[in-house]
Amino acid sequence: MSYARVKRTHRKSRLGCLTCKQRRVKCDETRPQCLKCQNRQIACEYASKEGAASPKLISSIASPFASNGDTSQFFDNGESQHGRDISFLELLEQSSPVKCGSERSHGHCAVRDTEIARHYLELAAPSLSRSSARSEQHWLWHVFVPSLAYVCPTARQGMLTIGAMSMHFAASDGGLPCSSSYLSTATVHGKAFVSQSRSQLCRLDPEDVDSNTASARLLSVLAFAFLRQYRKDGIDIREERSWRWLHLLRGVNTVHTTMLKLQQNVNAEIKRDMMPDLFPYAQLSTLPICSTRGLLTLAYIRRTRTRRFRMLYAALYDGTLVFEGDAYSGALAALDCLARITDHICRWEEVSSLFRAVCMWPGSLANDFIKQLTRCYTPALIIYAHWLMLVALADDLWWIGDMGVAGIRAVVELIPKAEGKLLCLVGEPMQLMDMNAAKCF
């Protein structure tokens, strides 16, 4: 005799949070955050009374690290008008390094996205958090971005773009043929990400503060990742595309500054992470240098620092480096900032984030100097070459790669051989380039 199996009765959860519904697990309906989401430290969102998903700030995610207070005082030098100087938004539509011929089917996309998400969590996120000794960086990439990706399509597309770009470079460096498919996948997600983030960053709606913060962070990494792909494709620095990373970084800085000036509810851990290394920082941890090449590069930068900046300042004052009108003050400000950042990096025990320290210089450049630089004006490129020496310290970060040495080589090739005085000003960057080529490290 056979008996029909009777399903055991159980209490149904019809008012559970949207996150548990997406994960297909039973929700205990605890508000404002259910226990399952609290235990996993992920976003917990309930539907509104009208049935639509209500905006939820991920600022409420419990962080394992203590807050260090409001640091907005360190960001008073940016633009204060809402939306002003965010010209980089216009570049987002063309930011993807390649064009994808056809969209993938939904089924294939779902399988690939699962693979990419796993790669992000297992490899990409750890590599991003290792670029800084700050404890909140681990929380940013391992908790904040993935949690937001559960409920925010923009953050999801950005996270998948970074994951796919990381897979592409890993496969490419290993000589695997699948690297091109990962790049195409990154392009599909990247186009969706920049389109959605462009729309949100134009408004800077306070309800989207977490999504905007995540988008800005994701863009700062993708700016360098796309530039690395441009270099692989042979894009010359005389082409406009090769400077999009610079506009993106400056735009990211403007977004952060504007959000803080509007007193939007930026997560305390994100505020703390936005604090530059050049300012006092409580419980500072030093970033270790793991490679012999990095140690030798740092030693060379330290050894040549005084002579290099003495020559650059002298050349600016005596007219060897010619800048006219407002461009002169912009060049002097750029050189002053580069000198401060170089001194800071040379005191390595004070460096907690090399990526953050390196990004401070392009984020602070005046518009007049930017115009000279992107037009490949030789005096501006010479100052830029000395910044690239610092970038060479970060060549083990997959999204930066060989930007430092390759950039120095591109600058030197544009300086006429007859300009002996100008070539002398890039003598040390050239020496660093030659040491790298000869594998002295």
Summarize the structure.
The protein is an all-alpha fold.
Note the topology.
Layout: H1 18-23, H2 35-40, H3 106-129, H4 135-151, H5 153-173, H6 179-203, H7 209-232, H8 244-261, H9 268-273, H10 292-318, H11 326-346, H12 354-364, H13 367-374, H14 378-391, H15 403-414, H16 420-424, H17 427-437
Helix pairs in contact: 3-4, 3-5, 4-5, 5-6, 5-7, 7-8, 8-12, 10-11, 10-14, 11-12, 11-13, 11-14, 14-15, 15-17
Overall description:
By secondary structure, the chain is mainly α. The protein has three domains: 11-54, CD2-Gal4 (Irregular); 72-273, no CATH class; 292-437, no CATH class. Helix content is 58%, strand content 0%. It comes from Dothistroma septosporum (strain NZE10 / CBS 128990).
Number of strands: 0
Q: Please identify the structural class as seen in this structure.
A: mainly alpha
N-to-C CA distance: 79 Å
Silhouette: elongated
Properties at a glance:
CD2-Gal4; 441 residues; mainly alpha; 3 domains
